[in-house]
MFS transporter (Glutamicibacter halophytocola), 413 residues
Amino acid sequence: MSHSSPGVRIPLRLPTASATFAIAIAGYLAVNLSPYMITALQGAIGADFVAAGWIVTLVLLATAIIGLAVAPLCAGRSRMLVARGGLALGVLAFGIAAMSPSTEVMIASLLLGGAGAGGAVAASGAAFAAFANPDRVAGLNGLANRGVITVVLAVVPMLGLAPINVFGALALFCLIGLALSPWLPQAPITQDVPQRTRGGSPRTADRRETRAGLLLLAAFALWAVTEDSLWAMGGVLGDSQAGITAQGLGFALSGSTAGGLIGSMVLMIVGGRIGRAVPMGILMLLGSILKLATGFATDPVVFILLFIAWNTTYAVVFMYFVAVAAALAADGRWSGPLLAVYLIGSSLTPVIGAGLLASLGNQGFTLVLAIASMALAVPAVAVALFSSRGNRAAEETAPPAESLPIASKSLEA
């Protein structure tokens, strides 16, 4: 199937959206299945919780490192190759891990599968930037991701947390992504991308974009630490402070997923009509307040409600980060490495969160997280404002539609 590179951002259509979202889900699925992966490893190779946890952490780090390494390729003509190569490796490696009786083969296969997932994460992240209205695309992706993950998290335990089911699910979603990969949007042809000229020469605009992109990636990695530290320590915090039971924690986690789905739908409907900077700043401030409040809640119901409200704001802010990165450059040079950067920060949070909680106590722990989130809102909002201004300038200087190259029918189907 021929697949030309569009010269501008393309409208959201079912084939291209399905391919992009499916590949993103395949690349990120191990993150969501990590508790099940730990259980499967404990049962299959007799590893204790700590050893199994380290294996899964290494798998996620492999995804993050490879995702960062191949992200520049995904901003150019190699995006399809990276996506298909990563997904094919994921199918093969996770499939072997699902069926191998050998401990060494299983662990090595999981690490290779994690590396393959990194290619999927980078390629799908870069493809987000190909679509018009990045805000609506980010919301729709969040809705698809959380909807699918909710079903997977419910179905896999019913089948049993054995390697064939847990690692087999990872292989299956890589296979689905591979089947849909022909519809993945490719990077635009460089000379056809409208250049921003307002406020200086194209070279000056490129330098500003580079600074903004690097600042966004750094802020996103640090924000991942502040958010996932509370997520990782939520059970410990709730138990020691509010007497949250396992059932209560399960309700909080389920409610958080529902809140994220609602937030995704709202962002999908609203799109970019209210801008990015203001809602992103307000939500980051609100999330900081809610994080701080969880450190002082002693009633189980109040703690659960605060936890759900905080996680809902987290989900929407996460999608705004994706939208801002996608809006910065149509070739996906910033949205490509975004999820890999998040994984690096997120993979360290169990250790960081446990250390902060042990040394600072409940209130000190949430206070530090809240202050850090508030501080990170400043660069995040600044980059969001820059991206919105850049999009408006690009629209004003874009050539007439009839002078632009035509994308292949597979993009517009």
Remarks:
- The chain has a mean pLDDT of 87.
- The first helix runs from residue 14 to 32.
- The radius of gyration is 21 Å.
